[in-house]
Amino acid sequence: MAVLRAARLVIVWLFATFSLVMAPTALAAEKSEDDPGYWLERLEPALTRTSYMGVFVYARGDQVSSMQVAHRYRNGMVEERLVMQDGQIGEIVRRGMDVVCVLPRHGRMELNAAIPSGPFAEAFTNQLVPVDRWYQPEIIGDDRIAGHDVVRLALNARDSLRYSHQLWLERSTGLPLKGKVLSDSGETLEYFHFTSLTISDSLPDEEFMVQSEGREVSRTLAPQSSATPDQSMEGWTLGWRPDGFQPAAAPRSGSGKAVAFSDGLASFSVFVDTATGVGMPSGTSRIGATTVYMRKLEKGDEGFLVTVVGEIPLETALKVAESVEIEDSAVLGAVLP
């Protein structure tokens, strides 16, 4: 089970760069390094276009995983390879939209069923989200991470509907080398931290080749859909979402429909599916910064399960879930519970 959890964290990293959109980097050149906006505008190009390899640790609650990553941008395409460092070996290799996952002795793993969570997962939408409208950015000092000089940037939530963040950005590239998600009381809910890192434009080709033996699962990821949330909410509606959360690429889950939203740093998804048995779960759980809230919903004699999952406080997830209404159970393919 630990290996499978780690594998899902690896997939999270892939979704982080898969869902990015190019921001206008020319604006960064017009600002001073003392301006937090300078670093915010460098963040997306740094994540996509910086070539690097290293090892990072990712912690959510009591789950801690370490992973080796190699990433490069060549000929207009992102290439990436991630290898789990704990437990049995497993790896994921990505070239553009093509992804190969190898998990020895664990059989098939559905890449399109991964729920986005973790640092920067699904955080960038098909719109340019004004992050500083929902977070107060502040440079809070300098530091060193994995032998690299970094700028420490705080992004303090302007309301209680989202968490605050801190980022440690490598000075020459803007690449995040460490990140924390913080509660309103300042508690660290989850973090990632590079322990070793090499930034280079001449990484060897073999670093981006599958090297593990085992069953391979291949997928070609679809480009982010331009569909609106209303088009995705077939048979149901969402009456409320926090200000600033815009439509983002949504994962798929079983036979149900999912709609995802992001404010530029955090994201959450709403799943609506048929409740097929009396033992369907409901209630709340939290791992690190990721909240999962499940609510049973009935319309006539038909039962449904609403799930909200994402890097948002419990109160926000609960309010989102309570705003879901079933309009047409036939469209959802509801069955008697």
TrEMBL record:
**Gene3D superfamilies per the record?**
Lipoprotein localisation LolA/LolB/LppX (2.50.20.10), MucB/RseB, C-terminal domain (3.30.200.100)
Q: MucB/RseB C-terminal domain: which residues?
A: 231-325
PANTHER family registered for this protein in UniProt: PTHR38782, SIGMA-E FACTOR REGULATORY PROTEIN RSEB (PTHR38782:SF1)
Among the record's GO biological process terms, what is one? regulation of polysaccharide biosynthetic process
Q: Name the UniProt key words of this record, in alphabetical order.
A: Periplasm, Signal
This chain's protein is named Transcriptional regulator
Species lineage: Bacteria, Pseudomonadati, Pseudomonadota, Gammaproteobacteria, Pseudomonadales
Protein location: Periplasm
Keyword Disulfide bond found: no
Q: Which organism is it from?
A: Marinobacter confluentis
Checking Pfam families in the record gives: MucB_RseB (PF03888), MucB_RseB_C (PF17188)
Domain MucB/RseB N-terminal as annotated: residue spans: 37-208
Family, as annotated: Belongs to the RseB family.
Q: Which CDD domains match?
A: RseB (cd16327)
Q: Which GO terms describe its cellular component?
A: outer membrane-bounded periplasmic space
Signal sequence interval, chain numbering: 1-28
One function term, GO molecular function aspect? antisigma factor binding
